[in-house]
Amino acid sequence: MNTEQQRQQAENRRESAESQRQDGEKQRNVSENTRQMAEKQREIGEQLREVERTGERLTAEYSTRALLERIESLEEQLTQCTAQFVCVEALLHSMQEQLQQLTSDNIAMVKLSSLDSFFHGAWSTSHTEGMV
C-alpha cells in the first residue's frame, strides 16, 4: 500500500468518525429536544390542572357567595314580613277592641230601647186607662 492510499484511508476514517460524531450529536440534540418537549407538555398539563382546580374553587366560592347573599336577602325579607305582621296583629287587636266596644254599646242601646219601649208602653197604658 502506498502512502497516498494510506493517507486516503486515514482521511476516510477521519470523515467517517466525524460523520458518526455529528450523527451522535444530532441524536443527542433530538433526544434533548424530545425531553424538553415532554417536560413542556408535563408543565402545560400541570398548568391546565391548576387552572381547572382554580376554576372549580372559584365556581364553588361564587356559588357559596351567591347562596349566602340569597340567604341574607331572604332573612331581610323575613324581618320585614315579621314587622308587617306585628303591625297587622296590632291593627287586628285594635279592630277587635273597637268591635267589642261597638257590640257593647249596641247591646246597651238595645236594652235602653227595650226599657224605654216598655216604660213608654206602660206609661201610655196607665194614662189611657185613667182617662177612660
Defining key terms:
132 residues; 1 helix; mainly alpha; single chain
SSE map:
Elements: H1 3-131
Short description:
The chain is an all-alpha fold and about 130 residues long. It has one helix spanning about 5-130.
What does this structure look like?
With 132 residues, the chain is an all-alpha fold. Helices cover 98% and strands 0% of the residues. It contains 1 helix and no strands. The longest helix is centred in the middle third of the chain and has 129 residues, at 3-131. It is rod-shaped.
Number of strands: 0
The shape is rod-shaped
What is the alpha-carbon Rg in Å?
56 Å
Task: List the uncertain runs.
Answer: none
What is the count of helical runs? 1
Biggest pleated-sheet summary: none
Mean pLDDT: 88
Structural class: mainly alpha
β-strand percent reads under 5%
Terminal CA distance: 189 Å
Query: What portion of residues is helical?
Result: over 70%
SSE pattern: H
